């Protein structure tokens, strides 16, 4: 079973809560996914629509909340959002995101490392969202990150794992769990991450924007389980030359 | 007197508490949190915290996100 910062998770699929067509669909999809940890963001209350509230449908006894710092452009903004999330009862867990460029939403490695150091000192359980950079992943675990969350491809692109080589190195080197986050657009992408040895995946857009988010959540759950099972079973090695599955001998009668 | 709440000007009566203000807005106090002039106000202080004239109030909540 997966353990992060001493907490055990039966599901290796973490869910995002953004982009769903309604709170009801989100709730049903999260239930179908079997996930135990969900990300949430922090934003101003819409004064024109103050009742609009996802918290009314999310059961905090069922899901561990992982507030994110989405929208933060530097370490200072991320730290401020983190402190607000904790003050709001969001707990110590935090998905640290520092994305200065709204076009790519690629994370800033320098500011992410800086913010991780500050927040770990303040007692947060920090899961930083990072580019698939093995050197940065090591630096982050050295300063106390509870896990690292390398991207498969940029947020919301559904492009799958474009960073497989680097993610493999991160997994090989990591002493903390590796959660592949962002860009996983299909269950096969999630299965691929798990087959590579990732400890978990985080999926939001692919489920939320699916034609049927509830069925897609179920499909991701199955893919994550299949991928993990395959990883633990031990995949056969890749070869350059063919290796017949049928016996080579026993064909004397043909010749 | 006047305060600024999420960048909107709001008229309030002198002596209005944070809890009273939230009630007038129709906001569920259990799911929002508040910064007043850059300081986070604890929930157990909402009913005793009197909003000062010109206060800059931020109402924040958890929303869907990835």
How does this model look, in words?
The complex is a heterodimer of chains A (255) and B (66). Chain A has 8 helices and 10 strands. Chain A has 255 residues and is an alpha/beta fold. Chain A has a 3-stranded parallel beta sheet. In chain A, strands 6-7-8 form a 3-stranded parallel beta sheet. A two-stranded antiparallel sheet of chain A has the order 1-2. Chain A starts with a strand and ends in a 22-residue tail after the last helix. In chain A, 45% of the residues are buried. The mean pLDDT of chain A is 94. Chain B has a single domain, classed as Beta-grasp domain (Ubiquitin-like (UB roll)). In chain B, strands 2-1-5-3-4 form a 5-stranded mixed beta sheet, with no helix packed on it. In chain B, a hairpin with a 2-residue loop joins strand 3 (32-36) and strand 4. Chain A binds chain B through residues 16-20, 26, 39-45, 47, 50-51, 53-56, 65, 67-68, 70, 83-85, 87-90, 155-156, 182, 202, 204-205, and chain B through 5-6, 8, 25-28, 30-33, 35, 40, 42, 58-66. Strand 4 of chain A pairs antiparallel with strand 5 (56-64) of chain B, so a sheet runs across the interface.
The overall average pLDDT of chain B, rounded, is: 90
What would CATH call the homologous superfamily of chain A? Aldolase class I
What is the overall silhouette of chain B? globular
Briefly note the structural class of the backbone of chain A.
alpha/beta
Helix content of chain B: 10-25%
Mean pLDDT of chain A: 94
Give the helix/strand class of chain B: mainly beta
Class of chain B, according to the CATH hierarchy? Alpha Beta
Q: What is the count of helical runs of chain A?
A: 8
Task: Give the uncertain stretches of chain A in residue-range form.
Answer: none
Query: Main sheet of chain A?
Result: 3 strands, parallel
């Amino acid at each position: 079973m997966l353990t992060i910062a001493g907490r055990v998770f039966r599901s290796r699929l973490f869910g995002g809560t953004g982009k769903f067509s309604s709170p009801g669909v989100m709730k049903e999809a999260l239930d179908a996914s079997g996930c135990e940890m969900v990300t949430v963001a922090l934003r101003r209350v819409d004064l024109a629509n103050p009742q609009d509230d996802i918290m009314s449908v999310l059961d905090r006894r069922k899901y561990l909340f992982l507030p994110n710092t989405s929208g933060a452009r530097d370490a200072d903004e991320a730290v401020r959002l983190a402190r607000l999330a904790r003050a709001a009862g969001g707990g110590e867990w935090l998905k640290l995101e520092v994305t200065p460029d709204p076009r790519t939403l690629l994370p800033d490695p320098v500011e992410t490392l800086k913010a991780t150091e500050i927040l770990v000192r303040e007692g947060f359980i920090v899961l930083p969202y990072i580019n698939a950079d093995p050197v940065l992943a090591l630096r982050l675990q050295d300063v106390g990150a509870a896990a690292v969350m390398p991207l498969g491809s940029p947020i919301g692109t559904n492009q799958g794992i474009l960073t497989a080589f680097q993610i493999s190195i991160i997994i090989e080197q990591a002493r903390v769990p590796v959660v592949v986050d962002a860009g996983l657009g299909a269950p096969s992408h999630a299965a691929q991450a798990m087959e590579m040895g990732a400890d978990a995946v985080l999926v939001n857009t692919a489920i939320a924007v699916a034609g049927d988010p509830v069925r897609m959540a179920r499909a991701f759950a199955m893919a994550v389980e299949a991928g993990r099972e395959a990883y633990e079973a031990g995949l056969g090695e890749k070869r350059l030359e063919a290796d017949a599955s049928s016996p080579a001998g026993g064909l004397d009668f043909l010749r | 007197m006047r305060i600024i709440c999420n960048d909107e000007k709001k008229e309030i009566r002198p002596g209005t508490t944070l809890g009273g203000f939230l009630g007038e807005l129709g906001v569920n106090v259990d799911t929002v949190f508040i910064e007043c002039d850059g300081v986070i106000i604890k929930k157990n202080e909402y009913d005793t915290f009197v909003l000062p004239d010109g206060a800059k109030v931020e109402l924040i909540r958890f929303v869907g996100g990835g």
